[in-house]
Amino acid sequence: MSFVKYLRRDSLLQLAGKQSLSRSFMLQTCRTLIIETALPESVKLNRLSGSDSGIVEVNLDRPVAKNSINKEMLKGLQTSFETIHQDSSARVVMITSLVPGVFCAGADLKERRTMSPSEVHTYVNSLRYMFSFIEALGIPTIAAIEGVALGGGLEMALSCDLRICGENAVFGLPETGLAVIPGAGGTQRLSRLVGRSVSKELIFTGRKIDAREAAKKGLVNFCVAAGEAHKKAMEVAQQINEKGPMAIKMAKKAIDEGIETNMASGLELEEMCYQKLLNTEDRLEGLAAFAEKRKPRYTGK
User: Fold this and answer.
1) What is the spatial distance between Cα 29 and Cα 3, in angstroms, rounded to a whole number?
2) What's the pTM value of the predicted model, to 2 decimals?
3) Distance (Å, rounded) from C-alpha 216 to C-alpha 136?
4) Quick check: is 228 catalytic?
5) Given 57, 82, 146, 175, which residue is catalytic?
6) Where are the beta strands (DSSP E) in 11-99?
7) What is the pLDDT of residues 171-205, one digit of tens each?
8) What angle separates helix 23-33 from helix 71-86, to the nearest 10 degrees?
9) pLDDT tens-place string over residues 90-135
10) How far from 262 is each of 162, 196, 258, 259, 275, CA to CA, in Å?
11) Which of 147, 152, 153, 172 is catalytic?
12) Rounded distance, CA 149 to CA 157, Å?
């Protein structure tokens, strides 16, 4: 069943006409659309334990189609991220691939050929809302990229807070070569990340870029040796996981919402986010740990 099947047409038009959606509204809207199902084999949810408890992996595993996203895989992503959103113990999410040499080749074009125009419209809307849901999560998200991240695969990576790639990574939005445009957030997120001019050049030409060029353009946060993206992403996730979880959530909120407004409004938002942390147990624990020269034990309270 479609992720946006229950959205009335006028609601879609209203949403499309707005410049931006609040994160809380997006999360609430998406929550009402997701239908709980068993995870398909193409998506695996892995909660780490021990000292890494709080880190969650969403593993893509559709080797027969280079992790291209079909309807079944989309359902798996929807269910996985709704589960993570409802899990108060989750602190960091990593999107990784279990298929060697590929992150995600984009939408499943073989399946797409069997769809009517209205079905394509519904599918792309579902994909767009899925990536917006990932972007709106209150906890950090990291894409660990090896091999190709094309079309919808790159759009999924763009919806994450951080991107870490191996030197074998290849990025591109080839949709104009198929006489369409990146329709799951690519035109908006890429331009906000690398700038208008670079975004236009990459989308207009459909040109693929390698990992080094992606790093130079600011598309990825780290470029490491091929095969090392997961290891580096885990290191970053572990660093985040050690910090106060409520502070991380408030920092993400202040950055993401503040950057969409002017400086004065952004500073007011920052003050509000800081204020919410003053009476938390974690803040007192952080001060106590500093004074006692020990590692803090944060509980998210």
Assistant:
1) 11
2) 0.84
3) 26
4) no
5) 175
6) 43-47, 55-60, 92-97
7) 999 999 999 999 999 999 999 999 999 999 999 99
8) 120
9) 999 999 999 999 999 998 888 888 988 988 899 999 999 999 999 9
10) 24, 19, 7, 7, 20
11) 152
12) 8
Active site residue 119: no
146 with 229: CB under 8 angstroms?
yes
Helix, coil or strand: residue 225: coil
Catalytic residue among 57, 82, 155, 228: 155
Residue 264 has pLDDT above 90, yes or no: yes
Run of H or E including 149: strand 148-150
Active site residue 143: no
Q: Which of 4, 278, 229, 223 has its CA nearest to residue 128? A: 4
Q: Which of 65, 107, 214, 215 is catalytic?
A: 107
Cα of first residue to Cα of last residue in the chain, in angstroms, is: 37
Tell me if 92 sits within 8 A of 241, measured CB to CB.
Answer: yes
User: How far is the C-alpha of 270 from the C-alpha of 224, rounded, in Å?
Assistant: 33
Residue type, 242: E
Q: Is 242 a catalytic residue?
A: no
Tokens 């992150």: give the residue: 103
Q: Pick left, alpha or beta for residue 67 (phi over 0 → left; psi -120 to 50 → alpha; otherwise beta).
A: left
pLDDT at 39: 65
Q: How far apart are CA 100 and CA 98, in angstroms?
A: 6
Mean pLDDT, all residues of the chain: 86
Segment 243-257 mean pLDDT? 93
| Closest C-alpha to 23, from 291, 257, 212, 180 | 257
CB 189 within 8 A of CB 163: no
